[in-house]
Amino acid sequence: RRQGKVTVKYDRKELRKRLNLEEWILEQLTRLYDCQEEEIPELEIDVDELLDMESDDTRAARVKELLVDCYKPTEAFISGLLDKIRGMQKLSTPQKK
């Protein structure tokens, strides 16, 4: 009996980068909001949405908008996030191999 083939594969390296990024974001948000992970306010930082944007200024403005109720300074988080996503690929459309 032959095993079925997976027709679409994600780039494992990109998936690993994305997972590391999401863990970093969670860690940073718990610091920014000074709380446990479960207590972070409902906000979604959509990396694919950020990657679609034209410039870092636009990306920074979007993240700042999402963090509007954070009372701590967010500049270091935003610049760190922009550094980390630079060169990343979107994951919403898997790459065929």
TrEMBL record:
UniProt-annotated location(s): Cytoplasm
Coiled coil: 12-53
A Gene Ontology BP annotation from the UniProt entry: innate immune response
GO molecular function, one term: protein serine/threonine phosphatase inhibitor activity
Presence of the UniProt keyword Coiled coil in the record: yes
Keyword line: Acetylation, Coiled coil, Cytoplasm, Phosphoprotein, Protein phosphatase inhibitor
Pfam families noted in UniProt: PP1_inhibitor
Family annotation (InterPro entries): CPI-17 (IPR008025), CPI-17_sf (IPR036658)
GO cellular component: cytoplasm
Location (main, coarse): cytoplasm
Function: Inhibitor of PPP1CA.
Family membership noted in the UniProt record: Belongs to the PP1 inhibitor family.
PANTHER family tied to this protein: PROTEIN PHOSPHATASE 1 INHIBITOR POTENTIATED BY PROTEIN KINASE C (PTHR16188), PROTEIN PHOSPHATASE 1 REGULATORY SUBUNIT 14B (PTHR16188:SF5)
UniProt-recorded name of the protein: Protein phosphatase 1 regulatory subunit 14
GN (gene name): PPP1R14B
